[in-house]
Design brief:
Jelly Rolls; eight-stranded antiparallel β-sheet; membrane; dioxygenase; alpha+beta; glycoprotein; single chain; four-stranded antiparallel β-sheet; L-ascorbic acid binding; 19 strands; globular; 20% helix; disordered N terminus
Length: 317
């Protein structure tokens, strides 16, 4: 990571302590307003309210934090409704080529929303930026995931092993995982290498999978933030994590991956007339019909350029 991007890390600690976060807020987050313990910030036309008293530190290796009630029930339902008829088989990134491939490691279905697709999505994205103290432009579009009975995502890292993906905004430094539904049994998020996995008190109703690491049970509206890089920008192997199989019910979640650099800067090159794909998975998604099913993300609109304009053949170069 370039040294100029390391300036954001001192603010990450401030985000989780009410007294500090009220006294030192970076200027790029905009105007700050406080009401009680809630920090309200204005960014790109959206209001972002963050309540540090709802945040609990779960672990320091990896750095992981849980925000209770980050989303309202209405926001959760809205995100699920946006995705219901657009879900496709989830893919994984090949470690060598960086291309998206099908794998039994990940058996869920999912889709990407467009950035600021509507006011609800824009407000959630602004709230994520305010909570993490990481610029909104460093984030990928929100991915909605659906897990049915037996579906899972085996333990993996969110940082990249290949160079192709690292060129798009650099490593993923942080992940915000938002739970959109409760799960009757199973579906836990598990960190097999977490430092506190042995000392954590676990309830009797957790799955066998969840007993193999530090466990977070999905609760509708909660959000889990964890970091894939250390403060010195090296990759954190303790951030290994997975989604346990759903045993009863179904699981809905929304993921926001955040990079060390702007993930949007390549889209600005499109505004200058350059036609290119911004994700190595674009050809695969285009063949699967995503240009029509998810045109806001793939093709774009008057307000935002799409990430897969070349594969969707909407430009000549």
């Amino acid at each position: 990571m370039e040294l100029k991007y390391l300036f954001v890390f001192p603010f990450l600690v401030l985000a989780f302590f009410p007294d500090s976060s009220r006294s030192a807020i970076p200027r790029w987050l905009g105007e700050r307003k406080t009401r009680g313990s809630v920090i309200r910030m204005k960014r790109s036309g959206s209001s972002a309210g963050v309540d540090p008293t709802r945040v609990t530190q779960l672990s320091w290796r990896p750095r992981a934090f849980l925000y209770k009630g980050f989303l309202s029930d209405e926001e959760c339902d809205h995100l699920m409704n946006l995705a219901r008829d657009k879900l496709e088989k989830s893919m994984v990134a090949d470690n060598e080529s960086g291309k998206s491939i099908e794998s039994e490691v990940r058996t869920s279905s999912g889709m990407f929303l467009g950035k600021a697709q509507d006011q609800v999505v824009a407000d959630i994205e602004a709230r994520i930026a305010a909570w993490t103290f990481l610029p909104a432009e460093n984030g990928e579009s929100i991915q909605i995931l659906h897990y049915e009975h037996g579906q899972k995502y085996e333990p993996h890292y969110d940082y990249f092993h290949d160079k192709a993906n690292q060129e798009l905004g650099g490593h993923r430094v942080a992940t915000v995982l938002m739970y959109l539904s409760n799960v009757e049994r199973g579906g836990e998020t598990v960190f097999p290498h977490a430092e506190g996995k042995l000392s954590q008190t676990k309830s009797d109703d957790i799955s066998d999978c969840a007993k193999n690491g530090y466990t977070v049970k999905p609760m509708k509206g909660d959000a889990l933030l964890f970091f894939s890089l250390h403060l010195n920008a090296t990759t954190d192997t303790s951030s290994l994590h997975g989604s346990c199989p759903v045993i009863e019910g179904e699981k809905w979640s929304a993921t926001k991956w955040i990079h060390v650099r702007s993930f949007d800067k390549t889209t600005r090159s499109s505004a200058a007339g350059e036609c290119k794909d911004e994700n190595v998975s674009c050809p695969v998604w285009a063949r699967a019909g995503e240009c029509q099913k998810n045109s806001l993300y793939m093709v774009g609109s008057e307000d935002a350029y799409g990430f897969c304009r070349k594969s969707c053949k909407v430009c000549s170069s």
